[in-house]
Write a structure and sequence with these properties.
Strand order of the largest sheet: 1-2-4-3
Structural class: alpha+beta
Number of strands: 4
CATH architecture of the largest domain: 2-Layer Sandwich
CATH topology of the largest domain: Alpha-Beta Plaits
CATH superfamily of the largest domain: Ribosomal protein S6/Translation elongation factor EF1B
Number of domains: 2
Distance between the termini: 105 Å
Oligomer: single chain
Order of helices and strands: HHEEHEE
Largest sheet: 4 strands, antiparallel
Number of helices: 3
Low-confidence stretches: none
Helix content: 40-55%
CATH class of the largest domain: Alpha Beta
Amino acid sequence: MKAFDKRTVWALLIVVATVLQFGAAGVAHLARVDAGKTLESERQQAAALQRQLEAQEERRVEGKVEAPAPSRWHLLDGPDVAATMEAVNAAGIDAHVTFDAIKAATSNVAGKQTFQLSGHGTPVQVCEFLAAIEQHARLIIVESGRFMPGGDDLIAFDLGLATYHRGGAR
């Protein structure tokens, strides 16, 4: 095998260095184009947010009061203990918690119905149950709660729930 002469080695080194420089220039160009697009997108978003802020400021200055969003909860005309207990039980079944007891309790406040429940489940199941109660169309409030270790990766809970109605009488 014949060894390369000095001129050939230098020529190859120059060609390799040139190719590497062109590659680096190409990468830098693509990065610059991408950064320019990102910058333009951010400027457009900032301008849109500025327009929204100015519009809100104009409404505030003009004294226009926007109507509040309608409530996602509704109040019944009277107490419906059975339907509320069914809703709580269904939320528990969907979250896979186990109830030990669910009972309606008396309330001295007009328009309010209270419930006591106890049960157990994994931390995820208990959290899913509480989220389902919060998101239910009927306004159900967790008034009190106590959580304890319930055994192998379980949480035991005692909750006091309340619902409200327009009737004013229980």
